[in-house]
Amino acid sequence: MKTTQIWCIGGRGLNSLVRLRENFPTAEYCVVGSVQENLENLDTTTVLLEKSEVKQKTMFGGFFNALCKSEPKSKPIVLVEPHFAEIIEKLQGCKKLILVAGLGGDTGSVATPAIAKLAKQQGCTVIAAVTTPFIYEGETRTKLAQQALQELKDYTDECIVVDNQEMLMLPKNISMQDAFAEMDNITVVKLKEHI
């Protein structure tokens, strides 16, 4: 078991997986998501989170209530609690945990602070590298990202924040794919100080 683990959470985390592996090949990887198709055929450990329409259940860290107030009632919510034992088992032997996620959606915003807290309770050093939404993504995603970031800072030794809005400062002729790759490069450079 490798003592440094990198967990790629949600869509942002999954999109960063290849670049992270290129730069940190000796780490152990885990991908956490809520869409089965995204986790199929990956040659890494995965955690598939379930979604629920149940609105009265208290979610870990208060995020369930925040989502219920701001999202349409028909939108499924990511549930992390049923996976606590599985997550703790995957953290066995881990001394340093790196969490890579985008905040603003439910998977990154709900799962990242929950996993950080569980890892802290297991004695891990926890470092998060997260992105925050573009302004045009709306107030709901921005508020959810801010709530997640506040809670995440309570459970991490270091929290690296990359604002997606910074992409707008890149050259106008850059493709969206290259812009996201540049944001990944920023994340990698900042993580190299800790790995």
From TrEMBL:
<dbReference type="GO" id="GO:0051301">
    <property type="term" value="P:cell division"/>
</dbReference>
<feature type="domain" description="Tubulin/FtsZ GTPase">
    <location>
        <begin position="26"/>
        <end position="191"/>
    </location>
</feature>
<dbReference type="GO" id="GO:0005525">
    <property type="term" value="F:GTP binding"/>
</dbReference>
<dbReference type="GO" id="GO:0005737">
    <property type="term" value="C:cytoplasm"/>
</dbReference>
<dbReference type="InterPro" id="IPR003008">
    <property type="entry name" value="Tubulin_FtsZ_GTPase"/>
</dbReference>
<dbReference type="InterPro" id="IPR045061">
    <property type="entry name" value="FtsZ/CetZ"/>
</dbReference>
<keyword id="KW-0342">GTP-binding</keyword>
<protein>
    <submittedName>
        <fullName>Tubulin/FtsZ family, GTPase domain protein</fullName>
    </submittedName>
</protein>
<dbReference type="Pfam" id="PF00091">
    <property type="entry name" value="Tubulin"/>
</dbReference>
<dbReference type="InterPro" id="IPR036525">
    <property type="entry name" value="Tubulin/FtsZ_GTPase_sf"/>
</dbReference>
<keyword id="KW-0547">Nucleotide-binding</keyword>
<dbReference type="GO" id="GO:0032153">
    <property type="term" value="C:cell division site"/>
</dbReference>
<dbReference type="GO" id="GO:0003924">
    <property type="term" value="F:GTPase activity"/>
</dbReference>
